[in-house]
C-alpha cells in the first residue's frame, strides 16, 4: 500500500516551486533572460527543487520522487555546466575583444607615430631644401658680385693700359717731332754752312 503523504508530496513540491518561479520568471523577463534556461536564479530554484524532491523521496521512501529529484538535479548540473562553458566562452571573448581593442589602439598609436615621423622627416627635408636653396642663392650672389668686381678691375686695368699707351704714343710723337725739328735745324745749319763755304770760295 502506497504512502498517502508520498502521493501528494510530488504535486505539492511542484505547486510550491511553481509559485516560487513566478517572481523569478518576472525578474528573468525584466533582465532579458526570459528564454535563458542557464540563467543563475532559475538554475538555483531548479537545484533547490531537485534537492527537495530527493530528500522527501528518501524520507518518505518514495524512489519515484527521489528519482525525479535525481533526474532534475542531473539536468541542473548539465545546464550549470553549459552555463559555465558559456560564461568561460564569454570571458574568453571579452579577453579576446579586449586584446583586439588593445591591438587596434596599439596599431592606431603606431600609425600615428609613423605619420608624425613622416611629417617630421618631410619638414626636415623641406627645411634642408630651403637651406640649400638659400645657400645656392647666396653663392650665386657672391659669384655675381665677384664677377662684377673682376669686370670692374679689368676695366680699370684696361683704362690704365689705354691711358699708358696714349701717353706713350704722345711721348713718341713728341720725340719724333723733336727729332724732325732737330734734323731740320741740322739740315738748315748744314745748308747755311755750305752756302757760306761756297760764298767764301767765290770771294777768293
Throw out a few tags for this protein.
204 residues, mainly alpha
What is the first-to-last residue Cα distance? 219 Å
Shape: rod-shaped
Q: Structural class given helices, strands, pairing? A: mainly alpha
Order of helices and strands: HHH
Give the tally of β-strands.
0
Q: Indicate the radius of gyration in whole angstroms.
A: 66 Å
Mean pLDDT: 80
Helices, by number, come to: 3
Give the percentage of residues in beta strands.
Answer: under 5%
Helix content: over 70%
Uncertain residue ranges: none
Query: Biggest sheet: strands, sense, closure?
Result: none
Quick overview:
With 204 residues, the chain is mainly alpha-helical.
Question: How is this structure best described in words?
Answer:
The chain is 93% helix and 0% strand. By secondary structure, it is mostly helical. Helix 1 packs antiparallel against helix 2 and helix 2 (40-60) packs antiparallel against helix 3 (63-203). The mean pLDDT is 80.
Give me the secondary-structure topology:
Blueprint: H1 4-30, H2 40-60, H3 63-203
